[in-house]
Each structure stands twice: as C-alpha cells, then as structure tokens.
Amino acid sequence: MHYPDWTTVLDIGDPVIDEQHKHLFAIANDLMTAIGRDQGKAILKDVFERLKAYTRYHFKEEETYMERIGYPDRDAHAAEHVLLMMRVKTLWRLIENGEIITPQGVSLFVNDWIVEHIMHKDALVGEYAKARR
Ligand SMILES: [Fe+2]
C-alpha cells in the first residue's frame, strides 16, 4: 500500500507552513493505517478527530500567514479552506457509512483535497512570498 508521501514538489518555501503540511500528511497516514488494520470505530474516530482539528488549526495559521504577507487572493483562498473543511467532514461520513473501507479509499480522497490544494493554491502563496523577499 502506498500512502501519499511528502515530496519536495509540495514544498511551498515557507518552513512553518511546510512543516504543518507534513504533519497533515502524517495524520492522514495514521488514518489510513488505522483503516488498513481494521481498527475499531472508536480508534478511527479518534484519528479522524485529530485530522479534523489539525486541518482546522493549519488553515487558520495559513490564513494569518496570507494576511501577514498581504496576499491579494487571501479571501478566495480562505473560501476554499471552508470547502475543504466540508470535505473533511464528508470523509468521516463516508467512513462511518462503510463507503470508504480501505486505506486506498482514504488515500484517493486525501490526494484529491490535500495534494491538489497544496500544489495549486498554496504553491501560489509561496511564490508570492518569495517574490516579496
Ligand atoms: Fe491553503
């Protein structure tokens, strides 16, 4: 089973944000591991809650960062975070309803929302920050 790994492609160039993204991946991997080992609902729910809480924390941090550097598309970016948060909650519903039962299922979902967002949206924030330096 190949879990989504951190790659330098996902590096946006800010050490704090990059570390948080890595941590997000680590928790997502924990969730896939828990599903792969067929651990009980309570454990799954626990790991999922960690993923949800950390995602929420990270988005807030990123929004503060965008504000600090004067990123012009901050509002649109923050709006996408709201949608992503909704998808995180959907992920739990799918797991709970038995629609996502394999690590691969979570992996697809995670790739879709974390990787896509980091590569296409967070990367722009990194480029903007770099250009300002
Ligand atoms: Fe973001």
TrEMBL record:
Kindly indicate whether the keyword Signal belongs to this entry: no
What family does this belong to? Belongs to the hemerythrin family.
GO MF entries: metal ion binding; oxygen carrier activity
Sequence ranges assigned to domain Hemerythrin-like in this UniProt record: 16-125
Keyword entries, A-Z: Iron, Metal-binding, Oxygen transport, Transport
Q: Which InterPro entries match?
A: Haemerythrin_Fe_BS (IPR016131), Hemerythrin (IPR050669), Hemerythrin-like (IPR012312), Hemerythrin-like_sf (IPR035938), Hemerythrin_metal-bd (IPR012827)
This protein is called: Bacteriohemerythrin
